[in-house]
Amino acid sequence: MRLFGWETAFGNGSSGSGPDSLESEGGVDANMELTPERKEAISQLRERVAPLLPPDQQHDHALLQWLTARSFNVDKAEQMLKKSLEWRREWEADSVLEWEVPEVLAKYYPVGMAGHDKTGCPVWVIPYGGCDMRGLLSSVKKADYIRYTIRVLEASRRDMQQQTQQLGQPVNQQCCIFDLDNFSLKHVTWKPAMDVILELVQLYEANYPEFLKCAYVINAPKVFTLAYALIKPFLHEVTLKKIKIFGQSGWKEVLRQDINPDQLPQHWGGSRTDPDGNPKCPSQICLGGEVPKKYYLSLSKSNLSKLTENDNLSSITLSKGGKKRLKYEVKKPGSHLRWEFRTEDFDIGFGVSRKVKKGEEEVLVPLQRVNSQLVTEEGYLVCTEPGTYVVTFDNEFSYMRSKKVLYSVSVVKPDNLTEE
Question: Mean pLDDT across the stretch 210-232?
């Protein structure tokens, strides 16, 4: 299957049978053949880490997750597991389910467990197109946002343990449905948001190996290719093979092959609805949405930003109802267009486009109002094509106030990115 120029990968385990294969479809590489060498690797790893792990985490499936992630190199698997145990202590992952979640995360972090697939693995729906990352990260500390994500992962782990007991077979993986309806580059071009996304990707790869059975990315718009290009280098090859990407069609049929209709909300191809008939089941799935300003952290102006006019920043003043368009020439594909700016007292409109031909421009970052008076606005865009890129500061919505903007915009060539 091809979508937007790349081939999506469908990861399936190789076949195996008999006592030397893993029979559970919900585990690591369901039918992975346990050769004598792999059995020996499991035994060696168990012997090395047994004093560090509770008994329920020493079975073959649990240890195979670490060995698979490190291509059955026992030394590397041991090192990875020990580093993860230290990470769990630092983040108090074992008690995170008892953590009192900030209200704004509970109400606006888009995620929810819908049910289970046909093998008993938990199915999570993430309506990421409805995520207001800017609002969430303006309302909680980054550590709390990350902690809440860990909490979701640990809730999934607990459900797996319950499913293992209920079904009488190991369940060690989860399925995720990422709905990108209403997704735009504003979700990832804001640097603080992108930094958190990449940190979470690396956290997941380092501490939850082989945790993912399948990720269904649905309703992916064309601009998703730009976002995926930023994230892809941080994903393990094994993880990439488990990602199935769809546009507006074709995904419901695939979901139904793996998940029974009664385990999915109607909106996502199932038959379940809330008691009031809502097909998205918001009682189970938090849909996100714009975060009200009342949740934003209250910061004194002195703490908002260290940027001053001495930071090699340019300064412009937009008149009431005014607009400023700044043009930058990009000669080499793969260059980064970077920006950072702040306004002194009030918000401002910001957007990025590329000139296609005379009088016509392609919108890359939709024009939107940003609270750059609260936090410094930082971001970047990968310029896949050469041409003239236009950065717009917009004050047309304000007929009462002029706005002063301190900004820095630059084009970084691919060669310089390699050095960085």
Answer: 91
